[in-house]
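Hi R.,

Here's the chain you asked about this morning:
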Amino acid sequence: MSPPAAAAATDVGSSPGQVQAQAAAGGPAHHGDARDASNEGFVMQLGLIGLGKMGGNMRERIRRAGHTVIGYDRNPDLADVHSLKELVDGLQGPRVVWVMVPAGAATQSTIDELGELLSPGDLVVDGGNSRWTDDEKHAEQLAAKGIGFVDCGVSGGVWGLANGYALMYGGKDEDVAKAQPIFDALKPEGDAGAVHAGRVGAGHFAKMVHNGIEYAMMQAYAEGWELLEAVDSVTDVREVFRSWKSGTVIRSWLLDLAVDALDKDEHLGALRGYADDSGEGRWTVEAAIDNAVPLPAITASLFARFASRQEDSPQMKMIAALRNEFGGHAVTAAE
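And here is the predicted structure, written out as tokens:
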């Protein structure tokens, strides 16, 4: 099991109780008192809940920046502590706890429990992919106990540890300020990559729109790839994609990743044509309807994912039947 603290000025083998003692003595665990010479920023403690592919790498990146992270996960092999209570007890107040669990019931139950464990003046950051309307409810729920709330959309995937995470956060200025050293540790190098998008819910709304745009961009690359594969005259589709990486207006990180995928499997023959959706695309389309904003490209890309899950499309059956009825076009019998 990894240690609960990895700040440069903190003993790697320290227990949560020892971390508390160091913080009480003016050590690096209390983010309001100490400064770290290596990054010239405040050194602070963070409780991090959810140590999967994203959360585990985020814990490592934050620790590399010199901060103390106490992590909890339902998988004891990943966790530093064995319960949320132990995590909260190991933090010096005012506490900052980052929730990185699946949106919906898991997030709600975690916030419910934290509401009973934390104290007035503490802060909860929801870094998962929660819906922005849930953020408003969570902020109100915690505010009744004097606990602050910030929602944070996080993008970066498995590359975030090395490259940094793009962050979009929403909440009151004073609450954002409490978590700012962590945002600074997670974001990419340079001036871009992080934004205080607005009030509570703005962070996850911005991340939702980001993911909707991502849906449409991926769909455009996928459609172009399929068309290139379909014609006889283009004999090296992979290298066409690679050529677009420099000097073209459609170059992007997604294009780079597409070329990486084609390098591993040139014609993607090992993959089934099925794509799931994690919710943000649907929410983006719903928000567009609520605000009367036309999103034809994003909406079409979402529906394309739905179509990918049909082994034998009922819609195409009706289209084939109609084409046969009005034009006598041939139909293919079902197996």
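One quick note: The CA atoms of residues 16 and 89 lie 8 Å apart.

Cheers,
M.
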